[in-house]
Amino acid sequence: MALTDDRPATSVPAGVQRRIIRVLTATQVLGGIGVATGVAVSTLAAASLSGSDAIGGLAQTSAVLGAALLAVPTARAAARSGRRTALMFAYGCGVLGAVVTMTALALGTWPLMLAGLLLFGGGSTANLAARYAATDLSRPGHSARDLSIVVWATTIGSVAGPNLAAPAGRVGAWFGLPERAGPYALAALAFGLAALGILAGLRPDPLRLAQKLEAAGTPGPDRSLGAAWRTLRASRSGRIAVAAIVVSHTAMVSLMSMTPVHLNHGGADVTVVGIVISLHIAGMFALSPLVGWLADQLGHLPVLLLGMVQLIAATALAGTSSAHDVGQLSAGLILLGTGWSCGLVAGSALLTDSVPAERRPSVQGLSDLLMNGGGALGGVLAGAIVMLSSYAVLAGLIAAFVIPMIVVLLLARDSR
Length: 416
Hints:
Radius of gyration: 20 Å
Order of helices and strands: HHHHHHHHHHHHHHHH
Number of helices: 16
Distance between the termini: 11 Å
């Protein structure tokens, strides 16, 4: 299949797609607050409870692993009942996970905290799945732009989230909660409001309407991962898209998850860590509309290559910085975010354009499973590498991991 949008044009009223984008944009703000507030404190909270930096790294890994595991039932819910049911399910898991994590912090037990963070990953699952909901009714040649608008909306919540962690902790303390439990109470509220927004506003269901317009009918019983694998095997562009998404996310999570620990070794407090993570998250989301426009104008492959180059530059900057060099670390984390954005936006749009509507939920679910599974594995390995060696060695290994993807993309461009 060509590496362009080969989907048939659909007669969707412009107002319907605009309404869907508005609803997804609003709920992404809330979802971004929930995810980012929890991420800002999870590593240090788990390390403090357990007395181990390695366990601290597992906190972020647990949330990413949870997002991976929940991607499959979320995709199945989308295939069976549409995007609205799927997104509500994922946000509901996020609410439950935030409550369990808050309880674990109140009880002082890190194993329960890790279990809660698995369910907390549902918030990330919902935020990621929403980007695909934005493309279900896109006009040909506009899928990257529609997707990027929803991704961009996460900027507001994701940048605000880490900076709300400290105030939320103080508010929680008024109610007798430990300081680091307060942010999870805020996350539970944000996820709950996002679910209500999806329930009330995501009408008509974009996937159901897209399937109807493309004469896909009701999806058949073959919604399994096996069917998704077979679809990818038949689509070269789909395989390239998934590989680029997985590499981008694994590299980002691996380096980002250990940056708070690296800063902590230099004596940085939670405010400094929050600022650095906020800048990183701004890099992930703030420029996504530009990334989407470039992907639609220049093609998906050039933007994917641009993302991989930025990831290499990010590892060079962050890996050569000391734990006290907040400025250089911030610059590296911003580049890490913009590189991830190129990989996610261009890769997700390419994947959507590569498969028919009736197969999209299963293939997109498989992509998110592999993406978050790679991130979880990267987080585990990152903690072990930093514990046994150093943050600089971790950055070098991530660069070596990204280089083969650059080669694949260059070869794909030459073969077009």
